[in-house]
Every structure is written in C-alpha cells, then in structure tokens.
C-alpha cells in the first residue's frame, strides 16, 4: 500500500509529457523527380530518418507534401544526431515545407546553435525508499520517504572551445517525512539537525557550476550535444565518479581539473584538485571532530540505571531507594567532564552503601565497572587520542583533530586513467588522497572494469584499498564489488531495459559519502539516530558497546562496514522516462550483525 501513492505521484508528474498531434489535410503529390523527394530518399538511404509512421520510406511511390512534412518534422526532433551535410539538407527542406510544418504545429528554428544560447534539460525524479534510524534486525526503526527531486541542467556554448555547465536542484517531501540528502544538514551546526541554506523542503540550491576550455586540435562537435569530449581544462564545482558503479563516490568536487584524451572512447587521463563536497558527516564526523566522552558515558550510565533488573527489583522491595536513585541520575547528568563523572559514580555507590543498600551498591558497581574501565582506558589514550581540555576522544588519533566548521568540505587530490571501447569494454585505474588532517586516514587507490560478454550481457568489478591504517579495526581497509547485468536501459530508447545483481563488500574506512545508490549509502554509512540519547555512527557505537560490556573477548571484533547483495532492474516505457527498482538483501556488517532488507523504487523523466 505504501507504494500506491508513489504510483499516483508518478502518473501526475509525467502526465504533462504526453503530446498529441492533430491531423492535417492531404497535400498535393511530390513526384520522384522533385528535389525534396530525392533529398528525403538520400537521407533515408543514410539511415537517419524514420520514414512513414510504419517506419519505412516507400521510394517507389509518390508521396504527398503532407507526408514529406511529417518526415521532416520527425527529423527535426533529432537534429542533434545529424552531421553538417544532413543538417544543411534539413534546413532546406524545413524552409521549403514551412507552411505544412506550421500546420502540423512544428516551429521552425535555426539548426545551427547560436553561441551563448543555453540548452535546458529538466530532470524530474519521484522516489520511494525506507529510511533507517536503526537498520539492524531485531531493533529495526524506519520510516518511508517519498520525495520528488527536480534538477535543472544547463549547457551554454560560449564559443567553439568554451562551455559553461550548471545544475540547480530542489527536493520536495511528498509524505511529510524529511528527504535525505548527504549535503542537507549543516556540518557546522553541532545540533546535527539544522539544514543548510537552500536545502529546506522546496528550496533551490546550486549543485554544480563549472566551465571547460577545449585545448588542442579543434574537435568536430556536430554529433556532441554536450560540447567537446576530449582535451579539457575545467574549473568550478564539477561531477566526479569513482569506478564503474560510483558506489564508493559519485558526487561533486569544487576545484580544477585537466583531462587529456576523449571521455567517450579511447584513453583519458584526468587530474583534479579541490574539495569533495559530498561527505556524509553524520557518519564520518566523529572520526574527525571527535566525541565528548562524558556525553557517551552519561548516556550509557543513565540507560543502565533505568534498565538494570537488579535496580528495578531493589526499588520494588525498598521504595525509599527511589529518591536515592533519582538523586544519582541527577548527579550523573550534571557531570561536565569525564573525571567529574567518574568521581560522581563513586559518590553514588558510596551513598547506596551508607543507605544500607550494600547488595544494590555492589551490583551497580559491578555493572558500571566495565564502563569505568573503558573510560579510564580512553583517558589514557588506549583507543585514540583523548584531550582533557575539551573532554573529547578523537578515535583516529592525535593527527586527525578538526573543529566544528573546519571540515565542511575535504580537500582532495584525484587522478584517474580510463580506457573505453564503447559497447565492448572499459577499464579504470584511479587514486585519491585527502589533504590536511583527513589525509592521515584517507589515501586510496582502486581499479574497475566492465566487459560485454555479448551485446546484451555485461560483467563488472571494482576494488579499492585505503593505504592508511585506521585504529577502528587496526587495519588498512578495502572494498570490492562485482556484478552481472543483462540489457541496457537507454533513456533515449523506448522499451529498453536492464536487470542485474551486484555483490558489495565494504570495510569501514572505504566509504565517506556521496555514493551513487541510496541503499549502498544506508548499509555502508548507517547512523543510529538515538544511541544512548545521541546520534552516532554504528561503527563507533558498536565498538563502544563492546568495550563497556564487560566481555573482553569481543573488544577487537570487526566493526562497521557492510557486505550485501543489490538486485537492480530498469525499464524505459517511453523515450525520456526511466523506471528503476533496487532491492538490497542478505546484508551484514563486518562483525556479522544482520541488517534489514531494503527496497527502492524511482522514476525519472528527462525533458528537453
């Protein structure tokens, strides 16, 4: 039932795309000797026209001016695919049949694009997906998110060598639930709930804006609607996709790049430097900003007092202890630092002993002892770097210390080499290094490839390795994925489709945000919305729970990360409309904790 509204929303959003054409009266015949007849026949021989409505051009019969006009109208709709000679022929035909085309409702436009004229491509997406506050089975907390995303993409040719590209975006919440966006929450705000300017419901923000200069021998862009595809220098906020799938990173970088070679075919070397803007700070923040230790400890201690069975039984037998425990909770809550908290815990235990509740004091002390021991270890630097001045633990050590607002974007240097044989195979090699403090935890390289076994069957794989040894699991993490897919859902080709399945294995420390897939984002970057009263990434919360549960055998488990299957299906019911369904299943973190299965349905229309 929860997808019923999605179907209705899709129908409403895309109803406007339907176009009807009214019939016109037949025109006089055009003989086979007529220039226009011969021109159309020539274009038909070159395979660039659709001919009659049934898909053929009957060259052995006379045709009417009306029928010629129909052919010209269809040809005008795909003028971007024509070469210079074909465009010239089309210009003459459209001029000669201007009246008939006008009657058909076709507006004659110059075939040659004017310099400075901006092309607008509107992207309209409706999506339904479950968002998780806790993704682990047995404790699942989720809500359905139904949203509409609108992107306005612009392409402006300044001259033959310079192009300007832009994208503004807004997201509309369709069912009253705030839609997720990796950049939506202001990373400078400690509340972790304040949206950035331009990211509120229905607000527009600038997502991309960059310009390119095409150097070297001038490229023929007759059949390149997006401008030159090789030998480019660019500056601004531009898209960067790592690998074939973009599971590791598919977002924007604010900076400069130089690209040598053609991005459509053959080899291409790209060098870029700038600031990665699609970082999931709810997930990565504690690694860089640190976590206030007393806040963690207070949450765990208060939770222990509220849920401990021994405490509940003691209060039931001795109601007068209720006031004592209430005072204990107040004392814990008022602690402003870890040393003060540890001192107050001793005071609480001593107070219970003085009240005659010796057994209760012993039981509470036994339950709190692991937490106290873990706190002492943190303060001594056993699990990262503890700064007593601000009572903050930095899990990644002394070298990775950043303040609030210092890390809104992460400086990165990026290089990649990609070789493509369209329709056959492609290979990628890439490397990325974060600069500044984050460089101590992020320096990675990777390989990716895709191979068409047949025109319809494709296999792919990726591998990425972080060369930095992370204290979290005392390892240099890596990730990989592989998959098999059948078909190709081409948004320009009606009835095209694709189905496939990927397996993803991602250790904690190889994901930072900006994945191309919302299911991948949630599995690999899961955050507890309420862990002991705090918003906390699963990898850190689970490690803290293991360190403070009194069982040393699980203190060195593999924390965080994810391994799962992702099934995908796409279909193009009509030109310009793409419908996609994704299903994530059999998901676990690196420690073996099972995660919930996820389903995502979305439909995207492209309007030019």
Characterise this structure.
This protein has 13 helices and 23 strands. By secondary structure, the protein is of the alpha+beta class. The protein folds into three domains: 25-103, no CATH class; 119-288 and 403-607, Porin (Beta Barrel); 291-394, no CATH class. A hairpin with a 4-residue loop joins β4 and β5. The model is unreliable at 5-27, 51-56 and 109-114 (pLDDT under 50).
Describe the secondary structure blueprint for this structure:
Blueprint: H1 4-14, E1 29-30, H2 35-45, E2 63-64, H3 65-76, H4 84-96, H5 98-103, E3 119-134, E4 141-157, E5 162-173, E6 205-214, E7 230-241, E8 250-262, E9 266-276, H6 281-289, E10 291-292, H7 293-307, H8 309-317, H9 321-333, H10 338-354, H11 358-379, E11 385-387, E12 392-394, E13 410-421, E14 425-434, E15 443-452, E16 457-466, E17 478-487, E18 497-506, H12 518-524, E19 527-531, E20 534-537, H13 538-547, E21 562-574, E22 577-588, E23 598-607
Antiparallel strand pairs: 1-2, 3-4, 3-23, 4-5, 5-6, 6-7, 7-8, 8-9, 9-13, 10-12, 11-12, 13-14, 14-15, 15-16, 16-17, 17-18, 18-21, 19-20, 21-22, 22-23
Helix pairs in contact: 7-9, 7-11, 9-10, 10-11
Primary descriptors:
single chain, alpha+beta, 3-stranded antiparallel sheet, 608 residues
CATH topology of the largest domain: Porin
- Count of strand segments: 23
Distance between the termini: 33 Å
Globally, the shape reads elongated
Residue share in β-strands? 25-35%
Total individual domains? 3
**Corresponding CATH superfamily of the largest domain:** Porin
Radius of gyration: 31 Å
Can you give the helix content as a percent range? Answer: 25-40%
The CATH class of the largest domain, by name, is: Mainly Beta
Largest sheet: 16 strands, antiparallel, barrel
Instruction: Give me the number of helical elements.
Output: 13
Low-confidence stretches: 5-27, 51-56, 109-114
**What structural class should be given to the helix and strand makeup?**
alpha+beta
